[in-house]
Write a structure and sequence with these properties.
By secondary structure, this protein is α/β, with parallel strands linked by helices. The protein has helices spanning about 15-20, 45-55, 75-85, 105-110, 125-135, 150-180, 185-195, 215-230, 230-260, 285-295, 310-325, and strands spanning about 20-25, 60-65, 90-95, 115-120, 145-150, 270, 300-305. The N and C termini lie far apart (about 55 Å). The mean pLDDT is about 95.
Amino acid sequence: MARRGKNLFFTYEEACVADGDIIFISVNTPTKTFGVGKGRAADLTYIEGCTRMIARLVKDGHRIVVEKSTVPVRCSVAVRKVLNAQGCKATFSILSNPEFLAEGTAMADLAAPDRVLIGCEAGEQGQAALAALSSIYANWVPQDRIISTNLWSSELSKLAANAFLAQRISSINAISAVCDATGADVDEVSNAIGKDSRLGAKFLRASVGFGGSCFQKDILNLVYLAESLNLPEVAEYWHAVVKMNEFQRNRFTKRVVQTMLDTVNRKKFAIFGFAFKKDTGDTRESSAINVCSQLLEEGAILNIYDPQVRRETIIEDLEYFLSLIHI
């Protein structure tokens, strides 16, 4: 693409929202820590706040509002209700365009995505909004990688994608437990499985468990959705992925203690890495927090090093996790 001068800038000026033809909602949707759905449902406080701000600032004309955040299925219905309830003269089209960027490779993922997913409303207005957003991506994304669906399919696809990726990690970690009990080599088993063209080798490396801001949050969101739809078997199935992740973390720590003659009290450990994965400083839901906290509970002395994580962040994460243990 030809350079057009300064293409990207940031501002806190709300008035800029009214000037946009396409307005993206890209805010956090953490797991609720209160009320109905606590510990499972997504907290849509920020989504609602952004939507109300859009309705307040856009006085007339037509705008395209794009859900970029990971949201529950049918969130677009709530967005539409909020926009329509404000009494403004403007009209809106709503699109779902979830991001599939991975931390550490986000720019590469944006430049060469596996797919761009856009969900739109039915009717001519919805199709026009779809065409407008598609035309932007078409500047660098091949047309066959731009996928269009209805709004709700797009919203669910993001949750399902993260659930399937996390499921693979929990699956190989479950096999690793069997390997440890039988003498099989999990790396050899993983390699054999990955050679199957129907499965592939990605996300088949046994580990201490998955972390990050997305996998557990989105699976729990899916669990809550299934429970709300009176699908307890579906909810139980996906919740098992999270429980297996917790089992793997605890199993790892227990093996460390057992290897050290069943006590780690006053023994020193070097911990290399604290973020949830390489090439990032993000510690959210990191397995290192769980493992380090359990070792500290056992009286271990830890020397933790991660070049991308601040010392203050490590201390805050461990203090918070340990406070939860003692509630």
